[in-house]
Model the fold of this input.
Amino acid sequence: MRRRFIFLWVFMLMLQMHTSMQVYAQNNLFFREIELRTNNGLFTLSNNLLEVRGEANLAFFYEEENETAEVLFSINPVEELNNLSIDPSSDYDILDSLQKESENVYRMKVRFKRLSESSFLRFSLMPNNNPDERKIIRLFTYTKTKINLNIQENELYVGEEKTFELFTDLPENIRLQAAWQNNGNIKYRITRRSNRILLHLLPEETGQQILDIDINLKRPYFDSEGRINYKYPLTERLFEIKESRLAFLNIDQEEIILETDARYNTYEVQIGNHRNLQLQKTYRIEERERPGGALIAELFTKSELSNGRVLCDLRVYDYHRLSDGYLYLKDGDEAKFITNFTIRHNTTIQKVSIQRNGGEWTENLSVYPGEIIDVKVEGEALDRAGFRFEGLFRIRTDSTSGNENRQVFTLNIPLSVYKKKIEMLNFGEPTGYAFTVKEYQRPKDLKFVNIDYGEGEIPVPEITTTVFYRNAIKDIVFSFNEDAIDSLGDLYGKQYLFIEVQVVNNRRQLIDQKRIDNITICPVGNSLRRNYYNKSDCRNDNINLNNILRTKTHELNEWARIEITIGHVASKYSERVYQQKIEIILSRKATFDIDISFPAGLLTLARGQEGISGLGGISLAAIAQFTFYKPQAIEKRRPYRAGIGILAFDAFNFGESARRYLSLVALGSVYPINRSNSKFNFPLHIGAGYRLNDLEALAGQSNFFFLIGPGIRIRF
Done:
């Protein structure tokens, strides 16, 4: 029989794994294998695939809340797989980013967060950063929680609450039960104080009672039959419940709410009957047995009921908790009976504040899509409240810091939240507090802004030095890549920019200046918030500077400067903004102009002439020449020039020995003083020419000649 049972169990387990593999194979042909390695072992798709609620899950065992794991993804050969990326998640931190380990194998290292509280845990991978091809790997966590109840004495008294500690190796995995539960003649509940799990027992009738309860778990374990189990059976305990020294009268209402502005309200209650309980009598209810106790309430007995109880009027004056001990019904100063019930505040909220990671608590209840925040609610009787947040499902309660005056929650605001306000509800009723959902307004680096001055679109941050542009600039155009602002897990919101332009000529005189404000660029493309941005002030067209400048860029002379400053409007942001300065100079390799100089002391040598002629007098030269500039320097001339023109030889020599003639020449000139602000210069000329008229030409000499000599150049 036992062998048949084992065979049946193995068969069912294999059938379940086979079904899971079929489900996974149909939906996820992308992965060949996935390996998740922790300190507790190696878990793989081939060996640890589990079907949960009709979906395939990779199951793995954990012992620590913040377990660290190494994950390997083996990919089936896929065409055009350039890269593989993983979406960020609030359920884990990526310690080592996803990297390609070898051909079709990717590796990463993660540290999970609060595994006992993480539901719907998964890895979300994107091939080629394409959201449409996203691959989901669902994870199922299980653990082995040990719970022990250590009881030294097994005596309980009717109406007296007694507290025991549950010793466990994983207190985060125990699901608390703040409300009283019934187990025969004993009520029980489970609470948490600091890192201690407490079991509260409240007996109602005398006699022997076996305590047989199951502890609810957040994350399951596999029982001996291989089934998932979310309940831990506590070892049965036998208790002896005894009668109190004074008769205990049970009231049918466990809690009475004492309104601050209604201290004299009367509550109609039913109390247990007793032979010594007198009708039409008022009993004082005090917090201690001996005389002189504080008055907590008054009880007036009215009439007996057919159910064996007594109908009474209860008027309460002060607060009391079950854990504070018994309440004593007194006739004068003499205690006659005992009872116990809670008199508490009505749930009131005095303050709600939020805290972001690393920040201070603030009462500004503005939240942003995709962020994780802590919410602190302060007030009275909060331990009995049923707080919910409209439209939010990822809510964690910090039971270690929660009490009747303070409750702390961790909220995950979805990236796709569509509400502008998230109401905080108490048992479905509005509390008057709400979180205002604001869109992100963070400055994005200027990579989404492109400039085109004739060389195609260039992202603005890539221009890190002065641009020397040798061609005419037809126009300067700014364009914006709205797809590059928001990414899947990183939102920046609308971008508010300005552009300031100054145009300066080669003498550094300002000839034009403009500023464009209120440039608003809205994210589109793969932004999850694209449908929620107010697009009334957004622009998607290009900005042409020639449309706003009086002096057009194509009208500028050489060595003019266009200075552009583009950046975020600082008043729109609360953090450091980005700003970029671009300087474009209309540079030239060379310029062509007419130069008038006065060569003197020229030496000439004509073809067929024997020897070099004597020094000539002062000549006059008009040369159309090229001036050359140093590269990557602003209007810095090289010390040499070249050109052609007319030379009037000995033009200013009126002596008898003068040999004046006119010639065409090609000259190269070297200027030893190479300063742009120099008024005088003494160039050295060298070149060749052709005499047009020489009244004293020697017979047999050619009109072609070579010349060399200094000159004087005067700059006005």
User: Anything to note?
Assistant: Confidence is low (pLDDT under 50) at residues 1-13, 15-27.
